[in-house]
Amino acid sequence: MSAHCCNHEVEQNAPRTQGYRRILWIALAVNLLMFAVEIGSGMRAGSVSLLADALDFLGDSANYAISLWVLGLGLAVRARAAQFKALSMLLFGLGVLAVALWNAWRGVLPDAPTMGLVGSLALLANLGVAALLYGYREGDSNMRSVWLCTRNDALGNLAVLLAALGVFGSGTAWPDLLVAGVMASLAISAALQVLRQAHGELQAGGGREHG
């Protein structure tokens, strides 16, 4: 994704692009595996924060797949892909809020030990992916969207662990529901950041085309 439309720049950035491509494939595999683990565990535990995290892993899998598709293409294509992913993040955030309200209305009490165990596993997975992506965090809007998603995932995992402690200590579902709200806010905030950057890239690209 670091390559631009100029052929000379593509050649110069080829090693960096290939390294990024390998990292995205690893991230895609990790996220698909963790989605399967968390969706099952979240349903058994009755935890909305685990279900939200599972859906986040699925969304990130699509994020990485799209990033692999646009890797090496022009800036405008990458920016539009970033817009699509940002809108997906925005919908995810709104969806989590809806599920949290639904669980609050139903009065579901999640299983704290399951939340803690699965949340710890998810945190380790996301920290590993974040470490691989750290060197690409200041790229274009598409690269930035990948980094922000992964960073938010790690923060979300920490929040799930805190929610597990809160549910265990209080015997209520409110810590789980509050964490779901925090995760939704992170998704919405990151989506707005990426949308602004992608819009700027498209505006700048349009200016160069007409210049």
The number of domains: 1
Low-confidence stretches: 1-15
Overall pLDDT level: 78
CATH architecture: Up-down Bundle
Structural class: mainly alpha
Percentage of residues in strands: under 5%
CATH class: Mainly Alpha
> What Rg do the Cα atoms give?
18 Å
Largest sheet: none
Task: Count the E strands.
Answer: 0
How many helices does DSSP assign?
7
Q: Could you give the order of the helices and strands?
A: HHHHHHH
Principal-axis shape equals: elongated
CATH topology (level 3) name = Alpha-lytic protease prodomain-like
Name its key features:
211 residues, disordered N terminus, transmembrane helix, mainly alpha, Alpha-lytic protease prodomain-like, 7 helices
Description:
With 211 residues, this protein is mostly helical. It has a single domain (7-210), classed as Alpha-lytic protease prodomain-like (Up-down Bundle). It is built from seven helices and no strands. The longest helix is centred in the C-terminal third of the chain and has 37 residues, at 174-210. The radius of gyration is 18 Å and the shape is elongated.
